Prior knowledge:
There is one protein chain. The protein has helices at residues 16-27, 40-52, 67-81, 104-132, 155-175, 197-202, 215-225, and strands at residues 7-10, 31-36, 57-61, 86-89, 135-140, 180-187, 237-240. The protein is of the alpha/beta class and 246 residues long. It has a single domain (7-190, 214-239), classed as Rossmann fold, CATH 3.40.50. The termini are far apart. 43% of the residues are buried.
Amino acid sequence: MMLQHRVALVTGSATGIGKYTALALAGRGATVVINYRSSRDAAETLVAEITAQGQQACALQGDVTDPVQVEQLIHTIDQRYGRLDILVNNVGEFLIKPLTELQVAEWQAMITSNLHSVFYLCRSALPLMRKQRWGRIINMGMAGADMLQASPNITPYMIAKTGVLILTRTLARLEAPYGITVNAISPGVIDNDHLEPAVREEMPQRIPAGRIGTPADITAALLFLVSDEAAYVTGTNLIVSGGWRL
Length: 246
């Protein structure tokens, strides 16, 4: 129960990796805020699952690509709990489409979802963390984003994730005097309950570890980074990919 008395916000946590992240944080004693945009039923089901295990959770709706809604989300958390200790920026839409076929709206959506949302949330959450002089921010990247490789079919996504890494390191440097760490986790191919059957069959052959990653692989890294033991670890990009894209 290393996170007892801590309050954590996980964006986009009604389903997928965000859901498993919320469960892992709750399992270590944190009070978890489940953020969702439209998956209300799934969010409320997750809250019920966490509370049934004796932990505290609530579901708060909010589109984190909208800075006004982000400010309201953080304000609500402040009013309800009086603190915010852990922020996991998990939201990030994904689109596979050749760069030359992208519409302007698709380009903008990828950048806004994966990069702008991270800035909006950090900007709104940091005053709370500074006030208590303790905080943990985890931003989700992507394996290979740090290598600046051409990515013809996921160009805006990879550009956004590269931006997340630069933002992470910048915030880590700025916020260290306040006892706040800012780190990134860059997953490889993870079974998020939505993988296509063809991907499940093909990808293990392309991953040096010989298997697709699991949400537990991500949460194990995350639980370390939000712990007191990781108080001196900031600005890092922890690649969780089984060797894929190295």
